[in-house]
Every structure is written in structure tokens, then in C-alpha cells.
Specification:
globular
Length: about 190
């Protein structure tokens, strides 16, 4: 991730920390860094999947210039569940909001939400299992993170996340990862 910085590169911004920032920092994987520093580090040019997006089908029509750079490893068609019900959206809406996360201009985005976006990456891949790291972000800061392991033999998650949004998007990310000719399975 080109936008990610090491801990020695974070500016220390403790004078603007309030009680909410202290609480988030205590729960985060970077307890020594202020929330403004985390926002700065994770916000530069990185796109992530919208947590309310319900991907249904990979888009392989050549309309995305670099599909492997998208948050789920490819462009997806699908629906939106931001209202609590699954609603169809236009292709333009999916391209500009659903596939990218942090869609603050999206008319469907609820004002009160757990996350703005979810980030995924492959942590470990073997012929038997693939472990995917995830980070759920709110206001460009991590608020939850973890690892999900998928067993390729049984085709099942070994440690499913309790929120179906995370699991649904992780499954899509895994599907596009396995479809790549460059997928590494040791």
C-alpha cells in the first residue's frame, strides 16, 4: 500500500486529541498515535469498499482502467443496503460510490454508521487456506481490524466475522484474488 506509512513517519498531534480520540486510540492497533495522525496516514489516495455495497457480479467489460487496483480486486455490479433494504443502483452510482467507499456524496449513505469503508489484503496464502486481513474505517481512521481464514478444501470460512457486511465483501475480495492468474498459493 503506497499510502501507508511506518510508525516513525507519523506526526505526533497530541494537542488536538479529545476523549473520543483517546477511546479510539486505546482500541486501535496503533495506540501511541493520535486520531488525526491516523486519518492523515490512511486517507491519501486509497480507495476502499463501501460497507453497504452488496456485490453480485464481477464486471469484466474493460470499463475499469485498472480493475485489480479497486478495493475488491475488480469492479462489481450489485445493490445498496444503506437504507436497510437491498435496492438496485445505476451503473454510474456503482462506479462512483459503491465500489469505492468513503462516498460522502452518496444520497443513500446513512448519517450514523459504524464504518465508512472496509479495506482487505491477503496476509497468507497456501494450497489449503487463505488468510485475509481486514480493516473497518470510520472518518479515515481504523476502528476495527482482524483476520479471516478461508479453508479452500471445505470452501468455508474458519472464523467467520459476525457482521455479514464484512464477510460478504471479504468473500468478493477472495473470489477476485483466486481468479487472478498471479494469485500465489504456496
Amino acid at each position: 500500500m503506497s499510502g501507508l506509512r511506518t510508525s516513525s513517519q507519523f506526526p505526533v498531534l497530541r494537542e488536538n486529541v479529545n476523549a473520543k480520540d483517546e477511546k479510539l486510540r486505546a482500541k486501535s492497533c496503533f495506540p501511541f498515535i493520535s486520531r488525526p495522525a491516523l486519518q492523515w496516514a490512511f486517507s491519501e489516495g486509497i480507495t476502499l469498499a463501501c460497507p453497504f455495497f452488496v456485490p453480485r457480479e464481477i464486471v469484466n467489460d474493460g470499463s475499469w482502467p485498472h480493475p485489480s487496483r479497486l478495493p475488491l480486486g475488480a469492479g462489481w455490479k450489485g445493490n445498496c443496503r444503506a437504507s436497510g433494504q437491498e435496492l438496485a443502483t445505476s451503473d454510474t452510482h456503482m462506479r462512483e460510490f459503491c465500489n469505492l467507499g468513503y462516498a460522502t456524496a452518496c444520497p443513500h449513505l446513512p448519517a450514523c454508521r459504524d464504518w465508512d469503508a472496509i479495506r482487505f489484503s491477503v496476509a497468507c496464502a497456501s494450497r489449503e487456506q487463505i488468510t485475509i486481513c481486514f480493516v473497518c474505517e470510520l472518518a479515515h481512521a481504523p476502528v476495527e481490524h482482524g483476520k479471516l481464514t478461508f479453508d479452500l478444501g471445505s470452501e468455508a470460512w474458519l472464523n467467520a466475522h459476525p457482521d455479514p457486511r464484512v464477510l460478504r465483501l471479504a468473500t468478493c475480495y477472495l473470489q477476485t484474488y483466486l481468479a487472478r492468474p498471479s494469485a500465489v498459493l504456496v
